[in-house]
């Protein structure tokens, strides 16, 4: 039986042609299921018996929940005359996507999960890999946001009398990286927030020299490497307010430029001593 298939272009934000063609090839050579199908591509989606639709997220499919990666009706031969939709999540790597489409097309041929002995791809769960994303080490900008919410943690370090002065210095530090300057290719913005929970940058005073920082990162795909920064804490030393802006700007420079060392930073953070050691950026 000839079965016309098409891919819904409206929902397609990434080309999965290879996965679709691979899945169709798989079934065109099989005779398991409730009917034999000769899948033929039709360019007009409204004429397709099977419409493959790529969607961001499938939250429910006939008794299955959030972990669902694809969804299709279980069909008998006569049902296929009606236009049927196969939904597939669009965040998986090509090979995984092909496996999902094969599985869902299996349902449209009447196969159910209990048929996985005969057709392994009909197993209820199949291994999937997320689309590989650029690792953090290869990114020039490692944040998913340009909106920086800064929490100034004064507990036990800064008195309420000093606090405004320190806040002003921190603000001067981040201003070095805002769009008024030309140091970043991204337009980033900063603002103080009242709680740590809202913040992606925390600033805390310490007694050591200079500035230190730690950060947390996300792994957003299926490999072993990290892809993006989640948040960071800056430990700004030297309780001399004159240096707080410089120290804040230094740490932010490393984090915003995803720099490995000072040579990747612009002046005056690049380690070039033309300004002299003590003549740092102060005001
Ligand atoms: Zn299934």
Automatic annotation (TrEMBL):
This is Matrixin. SUPFAM superfamilies: Metalloproteases ('zincins'), catalytic domain (SSF55486). InterPro entries: MetalloPept_cat_dom_sf. Residues 263-283 are annotated as: Disordered. Keywords: Plasmid. Residues 263-276 have a biased composition (Acidic residues).
